[in-house]
Specification:
Chain A is of the alpha+beta class and 158 residues long. In chain A, 20% of the residues lie in helices and 35% in strands. Chain A has helices at 5-31, 52-55, and strands spanning 58-61, 67-74, 77-79, 82-86, 90-97, 102-106, 112-115, 121-126, 131-136, 149-155. In chain A, strands 1, 2, 3, 5 and 8 form a five-stranded mixed sheet that branches. In chain A, strands 4-10-9-6-7 form a five-stranded mixed sheet, with no helix packed on it. Chain B is an all-alpha fold. Chain B has three domains: 1-122 and 133-157; 158-232 and 238-307 and 314-319 and 507-540, no CATH class; 322-486, no CATH class. The chains are: A alpha+beta (158), B mainly alpha (540). The structure holds copper (II) ion (2 copies). The site of one copper (II) ion has 6 residues of chain A, from loops.
């Protein structure tokens, strides 16, 4: 099979681009722990409100100082709809949906996950800048989807 | 052959009709999204319109256009009529009836579930059954095309298939492999559930099956566009195909790499482990390779064309290309937009960066460059080339046809750049309004939604030009014997012996192995896990 010399160069270049892309992604995943939220845990969506893991919602500080936020998404709100967490502390979010698919995105950060009924979404992040953040549902969930949001307040750490 | 021409015309006709309706919906959405005060503007209309636009463009327009193009290209390239013409008509009617059913459900407000129809949002059963019939129709078309190819193969043992047919075969294989996922979702989950035969559905399993289908769906659209780039564009530009064997390699690579990548749409999903998401990322990166090779081969073919037209210096060949030929300008502009889309796609596919853009306006900016430009603009250009030959009339209003691709290019640049930027700023996609009770951050998005609306207006004008040219050609074009469909000759002459890339069965086997590696374990362990189903909801 004859391949033009320039095209040969190009193909090596294309292969290199693919390899570099994968190298960066693998490096970020392995050395910096940059992996997408992939927690596997199920919950009965019809019993979310009484399930012990979600019966009490809001912000909880663990004995080791880490912070845990539990929220439930429903048509068309987050429960609770305002949370306060300290800056510069790892915060673990535990979230699920009580009805259809919802999204959970904290605008201005890279906190973003799908909320799938029957499954628990969990990820840990840290907020460096104190201030008020907008949390939106970014997955269509019905006619009032555009009204589904909550507020995150990051307070100066003590 | 007359019969086949009518069949191709019917398929392209439905495609153009679907495009026309969808483009009108898109226009309304762009204005609505910019919060312009339209009559009847309401969330109900907006989400209904988003659903209609997605289904009509992504599923109806593309599938019918590909069926029509496929019939025209294969019968011409093989030099023989379709093997089972009646079955081919059956395919057309099954797909048409199915599409009409789905559209009835959408426009009567019974299926406002968007074109991704994620459960537990629950649409009317006719919506699911209609879309299933559309797929069944496309399967019958696939079988007819494969049967025609098999008949030709018996008559011509040992010669490589014409390149256009090689590409159409790749399209069909990708499609047959991909639709297993959506068929399983429809038959085992959504149809019985919407009929009330089962009470609950597992939404995550549905997403896995949907995206098993959803990514190769993109290649089902793109491969026929590449067929036009490789086999029609060089000829129309007045040149030759730079490399026939590499084009065959590209199609073979698409057969194996299109499907085992679906988790890159589910990076943000719970319940799928990061390791499997990473494997799909590797495959996704690999699929960049055939597109990069295509960029070289097609550009080199254009340079050959320019030089055959007498170009001398380094860049002179670009000026010498026949920019007034709407097929040539459409395809070149669609390639430029696709290059931009490819860069954005690399961000989407990067594991870590995806969380910044997931479900933001960035995504709609991205896929309007890929399917909305690389595919749709190529198909429009293809229609300018194909439809006159199918109906035996001159292209009418050809001034509009010449302007239209450039308008699309500018409109799409505005639309998609605005959406990429607002997406990076966090603005979600597919939302009726982005005010969020006057939250301060949203004020930064507002001006850009106006830019995207302006882009939408230009796109609408462009699409209207296209529709006028099509209508004018079919109704009023001068009846005249048209030049036959012709394909580009390779620079190095026609291949005489088949290459490894022509051994389609080999690539099918590799594709199946890769799919099993990518999906068998995650699916099996998902099914083995304790799961709770969801009842349906109809909040629309
Ligand atoms: Cu929601
Ligand atoms: Cu994809």
């Amino acid at each position: 099979m004859h391949v033009d010399i320039y095209e040969r160069f190009w193909m090596w270049g294309a292969g290199a681009i693919v390899a570099i892309f994968l190298g960066i992604t693998a490096f970020a995943a392995i050395s910096q722990g940059r992996v997408p939220p992939s927690h596997a845990e199920t919950v009965d969506p019809r019993n979310v409100w009484t399930d012990p893991r979600f019966a009490e919602r809001g912000v909880k500080t663990n004995p080791d100082g880490s912070v845990e936020v539990t929220m439930v998404a429903l048509m068309f709100a987050f429960q609770p709809n305002e949370i306060r967490v300290p800056a510069g502390t790892p915060v673990t979010f535990r979230l699920t949906s009580a009805d259809v698919l919802h999204g959970f995105q904290i605008i201005g950060t890279n906190a973003n996950t799908m909320l799938v009924p029957g499954y628990v979404s969990q990820f840990t992040t840290e907020f460096d800048r104190p201030g008020q953040y907008l949390i939106v549902c970014n997955e269509y969930c019905g006619l009032s989807h555009q009204g589904m949001f909550a507020t995150l307040i990051v307070e100066e750490g003590e | 052959m007359m019969h086949n021409r009518q069949l191709a015309t019917a398929n392209v006709g439905v495609a153009v009709g679907a495009f026309g309706v969808a483009t009108f919906l898109a226009f309304m959405q762009a204005l609505s999204r910019a919060a312009l005060d339209l009559p009847w503007r309401s969330p109900k209309m907006y989400y209904l319109s988003v659903t209609g636009h997605g289904v009509l463009m992504a599923l109806v327009f593309t599938t019918f256009f590909i069926m029509g193009l496929g019939v025209a290209l294969t019968t011409r390239a093989l030099g023989r009529p379709l093997r089972y013409p009646r079955l081919a008509w059956l395919a057309f009617w099954v797909a048409t009836v199915g599409s009409l059913g789905a559209l009835w459900a959408i426009f009567w407000g019974k299926a406002t579930v968007l074109y991704t129809f994620y459960p537990p949002l629950e649409a009317h059963p006719v919506f699911y059954i209609g879309l299933t019939l559309l797929v069944v129709g496309s399967w019958i078309w696939s079988a007819v095309t494969l049967g025609t190819y098999a008949a030709w193969r018996r008559e011509h043992p040992g010669v490589p298939a014409p390149l256009a047919v090689h590409g159409i075969l790749a399209t069909i294989i990708v499609w047959l492999l991909a639709t297993i996922g959506v068929a399983a979702e429809m038959l085992f989950q959504l149809i019985p559930w919407s009929l009330g035969l089962v009470e609950t559905v597992d939404p995550l399993l549905a997403r896995m099956l949907f995206w098993y289908f959803g990514h190769p769906l993109v290649y089902f659209w793109l491969i026929p566009a590449y067929v036009v780039w490789y086999t029609v564009l060089p000829k129309e530009a007045g040149g030759r195909l730079f490399s026939d064997p590499l084009a065959r390699m590209v199609f073979a690579l698409f057969i194996i790499l299109s499907t085992p990548v679906g988790f890159h749409h589910q990076f943000m999903d719970p319940g799928i482990s990061a390791g499997w998401k990473m494997l799909h990322t590797v495959n996704t990166a690999a699929i960049l390779f055939p597109s990069l090779v295509t960029a070289f081969t097609v550009t080199a073919s254009l340079e050959v064309a320019g030089r055959m037209r007498g170009a001398t210096g380094l860049w002179d060949w670009i000026k010498r290309l026949p920019w007034g030929n709407p097929l040539v300008s459409s395809v070149i502009l669609s390639m430029i937009l696709f290059a931009l889309g490819g860069i954005g796609g690399a961000v989407n596919a990067a594991f870590g960066m995806n969380s910044v853009v997931h479900n933001t306006a960035w995504i709609q900016g991205h896929f309007h460059l890929t399917v909305g430009s690389a595919v749709a603009l190529t198909f429009m250009g293809g229609a300018y080339w194909l439809v006159p030959k199918l109906v035996g009339r001159d292209l009418e209003l050809d001034l509009l046809a010449r302007v239209q691709p450039f308008l699309w290019f500018v409109g799409m640049l505005l639309f998609s750049l605005a959406n990429h930027v607002t997406g990076l700023m966090g603005m979600p996609r597919r939302v009726y309004e982005v005010g969020y009770a006057g939250n301060a951050i949203t004020s930064h998005w507002q001006n850009l939604t106006l830019v995207s609306a302006l882009g939408g207006v230009l796109l609408f004008v462009s699409a209207s030009f296209f529709l006028l040219v099509m209508l004018g050609t079919v109704l009023a074009g001068r009846r005249r014997e048209q030049p036959a469909l012709e394909f580009a000759e390779p620079l190095a002459g026609k291949p005489e012996r088949p290459l490894i890339f022509d051994r389609i069965w080999l690539w099918v086997v590799v594709a199946i192995v890769l799919v099993v590696i990518a999906y068998a374990y995650p699916l099996a362990s998902h099914l083995a896990m304790e799961r709770f189903g969801s009842p349906g909801f109809k909040p629309f």
